[in-house]
Write a structure and sequence with these properties.
The protein is mainly alpha-helical. The protein has 20 helices and 12 strands. It is about 45% helix and about 10% strand. A 3-stranded parallel β-sheet has the order 1-2-3. Bound molecules: glutamic acid (GLU). Glutamic acid binds next to loops.
Length: about 475
């Protein structure tokens, strides 16, 4: 079978990480089996759909490398087709006009709830003669769903699930204004796009049973379903704003790498042994739905940080430099010239060692581009006592005399100096770090000195001693 999957977000908000994971699973499943992964923007609700949300979703997917393989389908363009299908169903007796007023529907709901019934609509207009129809009410079109029997699906994630048809409402296909409902358009479009596998959040599991009724009424082939558990926050409740950033664009701004985010989202609810770092290439070899767990997974920012840090360190250094420079360009009071850029290039190996995000990498890189005198943070300022200033002033002499400037010769010069002054290395290194970086943490001090070069080191030491 040629596999076709789709990701079908509604553009009523940003692309959240749960949606991104659904897109990723659809993408991987299709690609793994040499199928097609499509994208459909479900924008038939013209009031709630916005251009900004559509753009945020498309940009977010592009950033994650999860754009559809064919032109994006905008659902609202298919409305005429949805209406035509509703008409076919009316014509063949599988659907009917319903003229219930909002008040009548409300009453039905009360009654159903009181009687503990799940189907809220009582089928009033199902078999009524069209001659009864009131002339002042525009009707909706409802599907005649099966009243008895059961509907079963073999969900690739949830396993076999069966419901009694009696709990399925005669749901609405077209509203009174002729606009299609989600339940209707999703089936028509999935059929027209020849979707073979519907992979989506398990909040849609109940909808599958309704949608199957529509497939059956049209005599269309029913796709395979896979309903994946939602992502929860650390506290086990459904992920929401109060758990922090949930939009993909926030992760982009915070300095996460798209491949790292995808790796983390993949591992959230899917496993391949104990592997934590799974490249896209490997995922494309290994991914299948049978290893997707049935329970909700918890989003853990620390784990994401950890994965992101690993991806940063594995990234090609030249590319990493372009990313960090882009981030540094947003910051004020930095000097951008060939010398300072070169410092970042040479220093990148040391800088990237402990960071978790690109933003953090930029934070710790600023001292290489900063103007002298530096702004010292409180702790660094405290390190620079009179004694400490004397010590770092003195280290200039051996540094100045280095013939072949390199990290190794710098290290030797500083160590020899400390020995000669009978000082522990820290007594030299700590204030030197404070003077050169404005902070008390940085990459190795020998590396920092060597990357900055003699002139800048001298300037920065002088500037703190002058104060
Ligand atoms: N548009 C729906 C949503 O964003 C998804 C529908 C589906 O995947 O069937 O929740």
């Amino acid at each position: 079978m040629d596999i076709t999957t789709r990701f079908a977000p509604s553009p009523t908000g940003f692309l959240h990480i749960g949606g991104a994971r659904t897109a990723l699973f659809n993408f991987l499943f299709a690609q793994r089996f040499a199928g097609k992964y499509l994208l459909r923007i479900e924008d038939t609700d013209r009031e709630r759909s916005t251009k900004a949300a559509t753009e945020a979703i498309l940009n977010g997917l592009e950033w994650l490398g999860l754009s559809g393989q064919e032109e994006t389908v905008f659902q609202h363009k298919n409305i005429k087709r949805h209406q035509d299908i509703a008409q076919i169903l009316l014509d063949n007796g599988s659907a009917y006009h319903c003229y219930c007023t909002p008040e009548e529907l409300q009453q039905m709901r009360y009654k159903a709830l009181k009687e503990g019934r799940k189907n809220l609509y009582d089928g009033s207009w199902r078999d009524r003669s069209p001659s009864d129809s009131p002339s002042d009410i525009s009707p909706v079109i409802r599907l005649k769903t099966e009243l008895t029997g059961k509907t079963s699906i073999h969900d690739l994630v949830q396993g076999p699930v069966t419901v009694d048809n009696e709990i399925i409402d005669d749901f609405i296909l077209l509203r009174a204004d002729g606009s299609p409902t989600y339940m209707h358009s999703v089936v028509v479009d999935d059929h027209d796009m020849q979707v073979t596998h519907v992979i989506r959040g398990d909040d849609h599991l109940n909808n599958a049973f309704r949608q199957i009724q529509l497939y059956k009424a049209m005599g269309w082939e029913i796709p395979v379903f896979a309903h994946i558990p939602l992502i929860h926050g650390q506290d086990g409740t459904k992920l929401s704003k109060r758990h922090g950033a949930i939009g993909v664009e926030s992760y982009r701004e915070l300095g996460y790498l798209p491949d790292a985010l995808c790796n983390y989202l993949l591992r959230l609810g899917w496993s391949h042994g104990d592997d934590e770092i799974i490249t896209r290439e490997d995922a494309l070899k290994w991914f299948d739905l049978d290893k997707v767990g049935q329970s909700a997974s918890r989003f853990d920012i620390n784990k994401l940080d950890n994965v992101n840090g690993i991806y940063i360190r594995n990234l090609d250094d030249d590319y990493l430099v372009t990313l960090v420079l882009k981030e540094l360009e947003k910051r004020p009071n930095l000097i951008f010239n060939s010398k300072t850029v070169e410092r970042i290039r040479t220093g990148i190996k040391g800088l990237k060692q402990r960071v978790k995000t690109i933003t953090e990498l930029a934070d710790i890189s600023t001292f290489y581009m900063a103007k002298t005198p530096l702004q010292l943070d409180q702790k660094a300022g405290d390190t620079l006592t009179d004694d400490a200033l004397k010590i770092i002033s003195g280290v200039r002499e051996p540094l100045k005399n280095i013939e072949h400037w390199s990290e190794v010769t710098v290290e030797t010069a500083i160590k020899v100096y400390a020995e000669q002054c009978n000082l522990k290395l820290g007594k030299v290194a700590l204030p030197l770090r404070a003077a050169l970086t404005g902070k008390t943490t940085s990459p190795s001090i020998f590396e920092v000195v060597s990357v900055l070069g003699w002139d800048e080191v001298n300037l920065r030491i002088e500037s703190v001693c002058r104060k």
